[in-house]
Specification:
By secondary structure, the chain is of the alpha/beta class. The protein folds into two domains: 222 residues, Response regulator (Rossmann fold, 3-Layer(aba) Sandwich), CATH 3.40.50.2300; 146 residues, Response regulator (Rossmann fold). Helix content is 39%, strand content 18%. It has twelve helices and 14 strands. The strands form four sheets. The chain has a five-stranded parallel sheet, with helices on both faces. Strands 7-6-8-9 form a four-stranded parallel sheet. Strands 10-13-14 form a three-stranded antiparallel sheet, covered by helices on one side. Strand 1, helix 2 and strand 2 form a beta-alpha-beta unit. Helix 1 crosses helix 10. The radius of gyration is 20 Å and the shape is globular. This is ABC transporter substrate-binding protein. Belongs to the leucine-binding protein family. One of its GO terms (biological process) is amino acid transport. Keywords: Amino-acid transport, Signal, Transport.
Length: 381
């Protein structure tokens, strides 16, 4: 089995050692992707696509993988799960891709899973729902932390603050629903009582009615599970109503875009997120630090502020290419097996070790608990 140096080599910026000969003379490795580059989830899909394009361009400039160029075949779903299924079919049947790295949202990822399982093609999702990898499906993997992990990390922090009564508010999309379910399920394990359970729609522009109900409870903190503009609206409405309770968000808002949308109201908000957002603040001995800084510097040098969502795409791409390199083949079954054997892989989301019973490969320690202070991320100790 080959050594796995592709990701760290590229992240640090050294010469790629896996290329051999002229990449353009060999059959390309085809990476398929369907992402929400436009529409309400564009804050996910846009950095994901930019990341895939940027790294594939760099890989090809340095010789490809085993002398083979990497080709990206991309479709924009606009956040529509039905379109995701159509594009996945096209990637598999027409474009003949070797592996799929994509699915910005939980809904789109879940919708294509039956298709990729039937087609027997490796699929690495970039979405958060635990349902993507629990129960384990043979051909499906993912790189982002799960909503269950987010709820657990948040509840751990609440326990430290002596919080036992929580008001839950969540979006009614796939991510919000799954996060709500996990928040409700995990609460008893941390001796936390959910004293309110409110929801909002993707197109809602004001959540004061739900938050007024929450204000009238004996909640000691508010937990919002959602993504897009909804969490920023909730955050603003909380402050507008004069609610001073601690406010927690999920990893679904782990980008500077949330801070921009919420403005000053974001001050003091806590959320679990990948270490990518605080890469410079990690100790020199942290095994992720070189990868995080390599990715951050490359992305921000080209596109501006980094987000954890682009980082998930980096992790998915590199795990797939490392597997192809170790398999010395694009045979789908061999690649699938090698993805499942991913061990001690330092990515932006954490250090991944997958197995037949774990198609994510991250523990709770892969999350950092962050608090927004003065418009920036700080680590909560």
């Amino acid at each position: 089995m080959k050594s796995t140096k592709l990701a760290s080599t590229l992240a640090i910026g050294a010469l790629l050692t896996l290329g051999a000969g002229q990449a353009s003379a060999a059959e390309p490795i085809r990476i398929g992707t369907f992402l929400s580059v436009t529409g309400p989830a564009s804050f996910l899909g846009d950095p994901e696509l930019k990341t895939l394009q940027m790294y594939i361009e760099n890989i090809n400039a340095k010789g490809g993988v085993d002398g083979r160029p990497v080709e990206l075949v991309h479709y924009d779903t606009g956040g529509n799960a039905k379109e995701a299924v159509n594009f996945a079919k096209r990637l598999i049947q027409k474009d003949k891709v070797d592996v799929i790295v994509g699915g910005s949202t939980s809904g789109s990822s879940l919708s294509v899973m039956p298709l990729v399982e039937r087609a027997k093609i490796p699929f690495i999702s970039l979405a958060g729902s635990i349902k993507i990898i629990d129960p384990v499906q043979k051909w499906t993997f993912k790189t982002p932390h799960t909503d269950r992990m987010a709820a657990q990390k948040i509840y751990e922090d609440m326990q430290k603050r002596g919080i036992t009564k929580v008001a839950l508010i969540s979006g009614n999309g796939g991510f919000g629903k799954s996060g709500r379910a996990q928040s409700l399920a995990m609460a008893p394990n941390y001796d936390i009582e959910i004293v309110a359970d409110e929801q909002y729609g993707a197109k809602d522009t004001d959540m004061t009615a739900q938050l007024t109900k929450i204000r009238d409870t004996d909640a000691q903190a508010i937990l919002n599970f959602g993504f897009g503009s909804g969490p920023a609206i909730v955050t603003k409405n909380v402050r507008q109503l004069g609610i001073t309770l601690p406010l927690y968000q999920s990893h679904g808002v782990a980008s500077k875009k949330f801070i921009e949308l919420a403005g000053d109201a974001a001050e003091g908000v806590r959320l679990p997120a990948a270490a990518l957002l605080v890469a410079e603040k990690l100790p020199q001995s942290d095994p992720q630090r070189p990868v995080l800084l390599g990715y951050k510097n490359l992305y921000e040098g080209k596109y501006g502020d980094v987000s954890t969502f682009g980082g998930h795409a980096y992790d998915g791409l590199m795990i797939a290419l490392e597997a192809i390199d170790r398999a010395d083949s694009t045979d789908k079954a061999k690649v699938r097996d090698e993805i499942e054997k991913t061990t001690n892989f330092p990515g932006t989301g954490g250090v991944f070790t997958m197995s037949p019973t774990d198609h994510l490969g991250l523990g709770l320690d892969a999350f950092q608990m962050l608090e927004i202070k003065n418009g920036d991320w700080t680590i909560v100790n």
